[in-house]
Every structure is written in C-alpha cells, then in structure tokens.
Amino acid sequence: MKRPLLWLALLSHFVFATAYLLRTPAFEGPDENAHCYYASYLEHTGSLPVIVNSCSPLLGGAAAHHPPLYYAVLIGLMKVLGTGDYTPCWSGNPEWATASPRGHLHFVHGHDEAAPVSDEIVMLRILRGFSVLCGAATILLTHRLGLALFPRTPRIAEVAALALACLPQWSWMHGCLDNGNLAATLSVATLLVLVRGLQARRLGAGRGLAAGTIAGLALITKLTALFLLPLLLCTYAYGLLAWRQQRRATAASGSAALLALLAVSGWSFWRNIEIYGDPFMLEAIAGPLAQNMVPEGQRWSYLTGDFLTRTFGSAIAGFGWNLTRLPAAIEWCSLGLIVAALAGAAAHRRELWRQGGAALALTVLAVLIVIAGVAKLNASYVQPQGRYLFPAFGPFLVLVSAGLVLTARGALQRFGRASTALALLPVGAAACTFAFVFLPEFPRQVTATSPFYASMVEGLKTPPSPDRARIELLEPPDGARAARSPRFRWNDPDHQSQHRYTIHFVLATGLPFATFESGGIEIAGEEWTMPEAFWQSLDPDLPIAWKVRRLPDRARGEGVAEVPESLPRTVTRIR
Questions:
Q1: Which residues span the domain enclosing 431?
Q2: DSSP-based three-state secondary structure for 111
Q3: Does residue 446 lie in a domain region?
Q4: Omega before 327 cis (within 30°)?
Q5: pLDDT tens, 549-573?
Q6: Could you tell me if 204 and 190 are in contact, meaning their C-beta atoms sit under 8 angstroms apart?
Q7: CA 522/CA 216 separation, integer angstroms
Q8: How far are the Cα atoms of 195, 205, 254, 255, 408 from residue 248, in angstroms, in the given order?
Q9: How crowded is the C-beta side of 485, counted as CA atoms within 13 Å?
Q10: Can you tell me the distance from the alpha carbon of 338 to that of 328, in angstroms, rounded to the nearest whole number?
Q11: Fewest CB atoms within 10 A around its CB: which of 56, 92, 174, 296?
C-alpha cells in the first residue's frame, strides 16, 4: 500500500473525531451553543446577527461577531436533509463555576441526550459531522503541503498528517461545532496554493484567482484567517522582486487574487463598516469580551506565564469549557519532543532549504503570524486557547515532522519496514487520552430535573401536520390586537394532570422563542397570561404568530412528532 501512514492518519482521524462527536454532551465544546444558535438565527430570520450598541448583549448569540459562511453551510446541510427548524436550548449548570474543583459540564443536559437520543440530537451530531470532514480535508492538505515543501522526503508529509490526526485537541474540536475547523481547512488550502506557486517559481492568473477565492472564503468564515492577508502580500512582493522576467505575470496574478478576494469577502467587510464603522469589528467585539480583559499592569506577567502554559497545554488536549488538560508531565514531554524536533530541523536547515526555499520561508512566516495574532489578542483579553492556533497546526507539524524524520533518518533506515510500526505509538497515545482522560470527565448522564427538558427542539415555527393539530385555540382570536397583555387559552381534548404545555411565538423578524424552551415556564393548565413587561417589550403593530404544543415527556422517550399541537394564529400589540 502506498503512503500507509497517510491512510492510517485518515482512519485515526475519523475514528477519534467520531468518538468525541458521539460522547461529547450537547454544547460542551467551547461556544458550541453559540455556534448552533447563530445557525438557527440565520435560518429563522434570513439575516445576520448584529452586536447591538457595540457592548450590549448580543442579538443572535455570543457568536454574532463571526462571519457567516460556516453557518450557511450548516443550514444548507439541514436543507439538503429536508429537516424542520431546529433551535438549541441550554441552561447553565450551577455547579460549573462554584464546585471545587469546578464541574466539567457547563450546561444542564436533558433526557433527549440519553440513548436512544432524540431526532434533534441526531441532527446536532450530523452537523458536528461536517467538522469531522473539515478535519479530514485539513489532514490531506497538510500532507500535500509536506509533499510540496519537501518532495524528496515524502515521509515528512506522512508523519505530519499522522501527528495532526492523533492530536487529542484536534480530534475533540473536530467532533464539535466550531467555525475554526472550516477556517483552518481554507487557510491551509490557501497556503498550499501559494507554496506550490513559489516552488514552481510562477504565480499565474489562475493560481492567483484560486488563492484569492479560497482566502476570501476563509475570511468570511472566521477572523483567525486574517493572517492570510499579510501572507498574500509577502508572497506577491517576493515574486515581484525575485522574478524580474515574470513581473507582469506576477502582477496580473496578484490583481486576480485581490479581485477574487474582494468579490468573495469584500461585502462582509463593507457591512461591518456600515454597521460598526470598522471592517474587522474590533471595537464591537471589545464590549462582549470586556469581562475577559487583562488587568492593566499584569499583561507582561500573563503573556509570559499563564498564556504560554495554558495555550500550549490546550493545543495538545483541552477538553470542555474548563479545558481539562493532560498531566503536566505529559505536556513537558511533548514540549521536549517538539523542541528537539525543531532543533533537528534547524540542524538540517540547509537540506530543508534546498527542497523548500522561499516556500519554506513562507510556511514559517505563516506559523509565526498566527502565533503573533493569538498573542496580540491575549495582550488585551484572556483567551489562552490552543484552538485559535488551528490554522497553524498543519504547517507547524510539517516543520516539526521535518526535524523528526531527518534526525531519526539513520535509525529508521536501519529498522527498514519495521519502523512503520512506530506509527502505532501516537495512535495508542490518542486512544489512551480518550479512554483515560476524556471519558472520566464527561460521563453519560442526565442532569435536568424536568422530564420535559431538551437541549435541542424542533418545529418552533413549522405548522403541525393535520393529524397532530388536535389542540384547539380559544383566545385571543386570530388576528387579535391588544394594548395590554392578553390571556392565552386552549383546549386539549386528551388533557391529563401530568401534561405540560409550551407556547411558541414567532416574531415579525422570523425569530422564534417559547415559554418553556426559552423561558423554562412549565404551563400545567390550559391557559397562560403573558407578563405585561414582556408584552410591552414587543414591537407594536407587528403581528407575531403563536401556537400551543404539549411538551413531550423526554424521560419516557417521547418525541416532538408524537405530541399534539395547535395550528398557528397571530396577535398584535398596539400602542
């Protein structure tokens, strides 16, 4: 079999990432709930969320500052599968911030996550599956990057791919919802296009068009891809200076790259200027991140202390919102191995330069810019998370693998084919991390006290099928207009004392919310009066749709499709 390590890398990635996907409770990946809500908001309203007044709570969740491409892909996936409208629901775990040591589950988890999981949780896992595919694509691109840089030493590319696939943090985050996964794929793809151009000593218009298009897609995925802008600039500046006979072709390629980039992502930057007065939303983001601001006078001590140790540790393995890490001894051993590999690469720098040349310098520059960007962010805000370095993981591991392979080349040749068995070491280490570090911290459990609680719900907007529209709405009448909060009444012909109900509202913007799923209100009877303060907060003269649904008993495995609900009506608040 050709390139056995590459196939082992891809197999390992799919096994480990899928294992994390299935065993990570809903939204226990950092900001996973916000990513899910962003997709839900975009699907329901057809518009991008906005950070209101730069520093107030976010409209559209805590991910409102992100560009939309990743979330549009998630919506497209749901459309292709023909699913209904999904809305994430989450309640904070009170023990997470108060327990000592802090609890590892950030949210309460309902019976819909207990096996067999609900249809909504199945959909969440399918959406997570897109992250698994992104990870596989990045591993392939990393392998191609290694081959492009060091064509005479293909083992470097294979080792880099395997190292990336067996990195626990990589596997875990690619089993969760995170737009950084797609951004990393597009970033490595852009770097690969540029590296191949430098290796060929030619940046044609087609290559420029490809680089600009892919970079533009990365920029409308996540702001961590901003490092691609100086990377493109350095690449074309080098081409213009070094290839005098091809300056016209290089300039044409650069123009094609710029035009493609602006065509793909320019509208996003222009939107940010119109709304926030800043193409990168830096001031708008400052408000939501203010609680994480590094205190004055402590920046240097933080950057040379906690930032380094926590970022490095979580780049190897950082599970959950608390970023549960590996034992310190393992982290130190990993650091020692990386330092030794980089020292080996430095010792063989002439050989590496003969193969990589300017493309190698560009790869090193890409890694340094990404690291500098994360350091700059942490100079203002405490965000020591290794996942922000994802765009640099692939190229960095290519450099590390180059040092490992060249330093151990003599020993590996002595063992011949038997040396391939050494590849099982990182696979075994990754398996042990999953079994003995991750699983004990995230056991299967239901923490919600209500049998009706669910982490994901479906059909807040979708009208029921005729056989389920068995609840009759009594008041207010359809099309009612009221200055004060009305009383909502209905009749469920099968009503029993243990039944609970929820009222779904859909605002004029298309955004849904519900009394139980959004507010935790369990309505026991067949009537409910909206609090006056809430009624007065609604936009006047804009009709809102509403319907009533009986809450499914999740503890008994009851799903949304099995409970009755009403047909929708509208009601309007007047001044």
A1: 4-441
A2: helix
A3: no
A4: no
A5: 999 999 999 999 899 999 999 999 9
A6: no
A7: 46
A8: 20, 11, 10, 11, 44
A9: 11
A10: 15
A11: 296
Compute the distance between CA of residue 200 and CA of residue 251 in angstroms, rounded to an integer.
Answer: 16
Rg value, the chain, Cα: 26
- Report yes or no: 214 and 423 within 8 Å, Cβ to Cβ: no
130 and 32 together in one domain: yes
Q: Give the mean model confidence (pLDDT) for residues 43-72.
A: 74
> Does residue 359 lie in a domain region?
yes
Please say whether the beta carbons of 83 and 126 come within 8 A. no
Strands 544-550 and 501-506: antiparallel
pLDDT at position 440 over 80: yes
Which neighbouring-strand residues pair with 51?
58
Q: Answer for the pair 317, 172: CB distance below 8 angstroms, yes or no.
A: yes
- Give ∠ CA 104-555-31 in degrees, rounded to 5: 35
Q: Please report which confidence band the pLDDT of residue 102 belongs to, taking 50, 70 and 90 as the band edges.
A: very low
The helix/strand/coil state of 385 is: coil
Q: Nearest CA to 112 among 499, 439, 446? A: 446
The answer to whether residue 534 is domain-embedded is yes
**Token pair listed for 415:** 């063992």
Q: Identify which has the larger pLDDT, 210 or 65.
A: 210
Q: 425 and 301 in one domain?
A: yes
The rounded distance, in Å, linking the Cα atoms of 238 and 232 is 10
Q: pTM for this one?
A: 0.94
Q: From CA 175, how far away is CA 307, in angstroms rounded?
A: 25
Q: Which of 129, 79, 37 is nearest to 457 (CA)?
A: 37
pLDDT digit string (tens) for 187-231? 999 999 999 999 999 999 999 999 999 999 999 999 999 999 999
* pLDDT tens-place string over residues 263-291: 999 999 999 898 888 888 877 777 667 77
**Rounded Cα gap, residues 397 and 388, in angstroms:** 16
Residue 453 falls within a domain, yes or no?
no
Which residue is listed with tokens 């590296």?
195
3-state DSSP assignment of residue 110 = coil
Q: State yes or no: pLDDT of 59 exceeds 70.
A: no
Domain co-membership, 436 together with 477: no
How many percent of the chain have pLDDT more than 90? 73
Q: How far apart are CA 386 and CA 474, in angstroms?
A: 55
160-188 tens-digit pLDDT = 999 999 999 999 999 999 999 999 999 99
Q: Which amino acid is at 540?
A: P
Average pLDDT rounded to a whole number, residues 66-91: 90
Dist. CA 303–CA 322, nearest whole Å: 19
Same domain, 496 and 553: yes
> Is residue 326's pLDDT more than 90?
yes
3-class DSSP state of 34: helix
Same domain, 398 and 467: no
